[in-house]
Amino acid sequence: MSAVDVKAPANGATARLSLLAGARWRWYEIAFWIVVPSLYFLAPTKLTLLSEILILGLLALSIDLVLGFAGIVTLGQGGFFGLGAYAAALMAKWGAGTAPLSDPLLGLAVAAGVAGIAGFLTSFLVLRGSDLTRLMVTLGLALIVDETANKMKWLTGGSDGLQGVLPAPVLGVWDFDLYGRVAFCYALAVLFVLFLVARQITKSPFGLSLQAIKGNPLRARTIGMPVNARLVAIYTIGAMFAGVAGGLLAQTTQFASPDMVAFHRSADALLILIFGGAGYLYGGLIGAGVFRVMQDILSNITPQYWQFWLGLVLLMLVLFVRGGILGLLRATRDRFFPPSSDKAAP
Amino acid sequence: MTVVLETRNLCKSFGGITATDNVTFKLEAGARHALIGPNGAGKTTFVNQLSGVLSPTSGTIILNGQDITNWSVRRRATSGLARTFQINQLFADFTPLQTILLAITERENAGSQWWRTSGARSDFVDESVTLLTSLGLADVMQQRVGSLAYGRQRLLEIAIAVAAKPSVLLLDEPAAGVPESDRDQILDVVDSLSADVALVLIEHDMDLVFRFAKSISVLVNGALFVEGTPAEIANDPRVRQVYLGEEELLHV
To answer: Which terminus of chain A is less hemmed in, N or C, by CB atoms within 10 Å?
Structure first.
């Protein structure tokens, strides 16, 4: 029974196609995933930097899930990143020589698990309060992880960092090499798989409900949506993603230190996401690339003042372009190729 | 007739101000009830307590025989109580199609599925399109909600509530702020709502009230002033005085 008398015939099939079209792979997405792996051949001397960019991109992607889609402002992803880094590093250290324990994929699973548990437990603190409260709570949590890593010298090596991190070969075949070839391929493969998961999440009913909560939490509740459960879920997933990113960095650099948990991690990753464009999925990845390359170039030109120029570019982007680099690209596209119908694209 | 929604001695005060004053109220299944009263009579405060947005200072709210006084907004919504807002509460970046699909998906407890693509359930999409069509929103269902005309947004506000298939529907001034030319469409939609749903209409507009309501409650200063059929209310000298008194003030 319907609450409204049905009068007119409906064209559900067209509507369904248009909804499903939102999940189709676009040409620029396919291009992106062709270009990135080909960097292996195009820039063989820059693989270490590229791996770092991929990992930073994954961390920014984790923030995109939480902030860009669900609207939770966070400065604490660095904390989960650090937990994941230490978890994977300790697995590789303790398990050195005994292959099953130091297996990189197992290390990542543990990193995701540890960060996920921490994310789940702290998500309840983030449910309450305004953006400012969330910012402070997440920042505080990351600082606690940072300081704990510093103080628990017996476990983490304190400020000297954790030495002797020797992960086993990936899948028992590919050993991490000095040129970062395996590291790059490994980081790229993990990033791609997690990207597919993130993409599926955002195109699903769950993803749509997160965007609804971001848009209007009161309305979301009045249509019967379990808003808190959804936020807990995405915050936990975001923490797991950040944990895997941290694990990747520890494994590929064979090192873990409090620097991996430090505040600038969270801040950089948030900057990168805003820079690239939040809510697009690709914003974090593209932002990470542009950010690190710009950092590299600027610090070569003006070793002392590069941060000034970085800040200036960032300021311009935030002041004059909504949605970062991808927002700029979309606005340009819409200007020269206006969309055929006035479709919304959340 | 069975009572679907009831309040007993409901009170709500904000500091020293009593916004709801000992309201005992009954709504029967399939009712067409209007809640009227001058500005500031506490109509929206009352509805906010019914839907759980505000919690009452004292008193009880009963939905389908269950005490829901301490239930969350969400639990009430999933138990058959739907509402619209006086000020639109919409998802500006969604399309009407996405909005209604979301509401139906939540009603069917499928909102946490992450492995499916949104729009994959053709039954949900068909129902969304049918509902939007019946409310005259078919032509704009692919447009951004934030860019729709105000009258269309008001219709979508009603559509979201209807999508939940509620047993009780609270309409908070559905025609408020809608230009004269679009009002008839909203009145028609309110008229065409299923007879299974008990409706409470909070309204200033007397045309709409007398056209639609089979019973009326008048709220003054947070308290139930008088209840009756439209004819009784229209001829009640005390109600006239309440409204005339206000009109005199308005027209000075």
So the answer is: N
